[in-house]
Structure formats: structure tokens, C-alpha cells
Design goal:
Layout (H helix, E strand, L loop, with lengths): L1 H26 L9 E7 L2 E5 L15 E4 L2 E8 L6 E3 L6 E4 L3 E5 L5 E4 L5 E2 L5 E2 L17 E5 L4 E5 L7 E5 L1 E4 L7 E4 L2 E3 L8 E4 L7 E4 L1 E3 L5 H33 L3
Antiparallel strand pairs: 1-4, 2-3, 5-19, 6-18, 7-8, 7-14, 9-10, 11-12, 12-13, 14-17, 15-16
Length: 261
């Protein structure tokens, strides 16, 4: 009965963690470029009372053995990088990646970070920056008086300058891919940085070598399915309730055992 109490407690803790992940997904349902998380579980170690195949007599053996489980634990959270829905904003500096890849931005400490959020803006120096003011890497500057900023599918940024008829190239937006994007470390603020699990970034031209093409005037919605999250929410709630009932049942059995005369 004490074993049941401990096992049920691990189940309640695991369901609480799953609920935290679902709440995070739902809260970011309208975050540009957000990628939903999934909670992964793993059963805990087993107490082997009798190993499978252990002898039970001179000529017989146990066909299944006797192994008692000790509960469950959260082994990790995996992020799903499937494409989110693209929606048209008509914003000239809004850019979405159709397919794999990340925009490369420069953090305040000079190190690169990676994001799927393409809602770009210009700062006081005319540089293309994120909503938090982080510039693209390599930087791209829109000169004063430039009109008709255009971003092509391969990331080339151009604009019409005063007195000019032909567009002038201002730079090119780079796109980075990773062998295992699920292994990226999330920093918040729509930013990721590499880890040993993700591998090193492969930075290059959009639309080449498996990198997605860019689409100007569009943004990528979060790939959160509210209906699926609600189903997961109900499942986590019911799992928590069932584990709590196991604790109640174990407590009643323990009470009955202690009250025996």
C-alpha cells in the first residue's frame, strides 16, 4: 500500500507537468512562429522479485518473472517544428519561412540566435530588427527615403531609391537549418540557440539545400491546435484524478489494516 501511494504520487506529478506544457501551448496560440511542446513520459525502475526465466524447480522456469513497477517520470519535452499556418498581413517587412529554417539574429552580447518569427521592423538606424530590436545577422539597413521594400523568395532585400528607376539591393536575409531542431535550447522571446543535441547551424540562402523559401507580406501562426490541446487537457485532468483516487484507495486499505483487532 505504501508502494501504491508513492506510485500514484509520481503519476500526479507527471500529469501536473503535462498540464503545465499544455497551458504553455495554449497561452502561445497567437505567438508568431511559436512551436508547440509535447511532454514525454518514461516508466521508472522496476523491482525484480523474480527474473523472467529464473528456475522455479529442477526442470522448470518462470515464464514471465515478477517485476513490480515504481511509477512514472517526465523524461523530457520535445518541440514540434511542423509548419504553422501562413496568413497574409500585407506588411512589407513581415516575412514567413515556407519550410525548414530559422532567421538569424544577433543578440546583445554579439552571439547569434535563431527565430521563426518574421515580423520585422526598422530601428532608428534603418536596420531590419525583430520586435525586441535584435538586428538580422548579417545586418540589413534600409536607407532613408527608400520606398517599395521588396523581399524575394531567396531572401534578397531591395528597394527603390529616390530618383532611381531600378531597385537597389540592400542585402540578403540568411536562413539557418539544423540536423535536429528539436534539440535547440529555447531562450524565450521567440529565440533559440544551438546545443550539442541540435548540431551546428547550416546557414545559407533561402530555398537552397533544404531551406525554406521566404514569403513577404505573411507571417507564420503558432502550430498549436486548440482542439488537440483541449483533448490533452482533459486527458491530463482525468489522469490526475485517477491517480488521486489510487491514493484514496490505498489510504482506505491502510486504515482498514491498522484497525484490525
Amino acid at each position: 500500500m505504501f508502494r501504491s501511494l508513492n506510485i500514484a504520487a509520481t503519476g500526479m506529478s507527471a500529469q501536473q507537468t503535462q498540464l503545465d506544457g499544455i497551458a504553455h501551448n495554449i497561452a502561445n496560440a497567437n505567438t508568431v512562429g511559436f512551436k508547440r511542446q509535447r511532454t514525454d513520459f518514461q516508466d521508472l525502475l522496476y523491482q525484480t522479485v523474480r527474473a523472467p526465466g529464473a528456475p522455479t524447480g529442477p526442470t522448470t522456469m518462470s515464464p514471465t518473472g515478477l517485476q513490480l513497477g515504481t511509477g512514472v517520470r517526465v523524461v523530457g519535452t520535445s518541440r514540434t517544428f511542423e509548419q504553422g499556418t501562413l496568413y497574409n498581413t500585407q506588411g512589407p517587412l513581415d516575412v514567413a519561412i515556407e519550410g525548414n529554417g530559422f532567421f538569424v539574429v544577433q543578440q546583445a552580447d554579439g552571439n547569434p540566435a535563431y527565430t521563426r518569427a518574421g515580423n520585422l521592423k526598422t530601428d532608428g538606424d534603418g536596420r531590419l530588427v525583430t520586435s525586441e530590436g535584435l538586428p538580422l545577422d548579417p545586418p540589413i539597413t534600409v536607407p532613408p527615403g527608400a520606398a517599395g521594400v521588396s523581399i524575394s523568395a531567396n531572401g534578397t532585400v531591395s528597394a527603390i531609391m529616390a530618383g532611381e528607376k531600378a531597385p537597389v539591393d540592400l542585402g540578403q536575409i540568411s536562413v539557418a537549418t539544423f540536423v535536429n531542431p528539436a534539440g535547440l535550447r529555447a531562450l524565450g522571446h521567440n529565440l533559440f540557440i544551438p546545443s550539442a543535441a541540435s548540431g551546428e547551424p547550416q546557414v545559407g540562402e533561402a530555398g537552397q539545400d533544404g531551406r525554406g523559401a521566404l514569403l513577404q507580406g505573411s507571417l507564420e501562426r503558432a502550430n498549436v491546435d486548440i482542439v488537440e490541446e483541449m483533448i490533452g487537457l482533459i486527458s491530463a485532468q482525468r489522469g490526475y484524478e485517477v491517480n488521486s483516487k489510487v491514493i484514496t484507495a490505498a489510504d482506505e486499505m491502510l486504515r482498514a489494516a491498522t484497525q484490525m483487532r
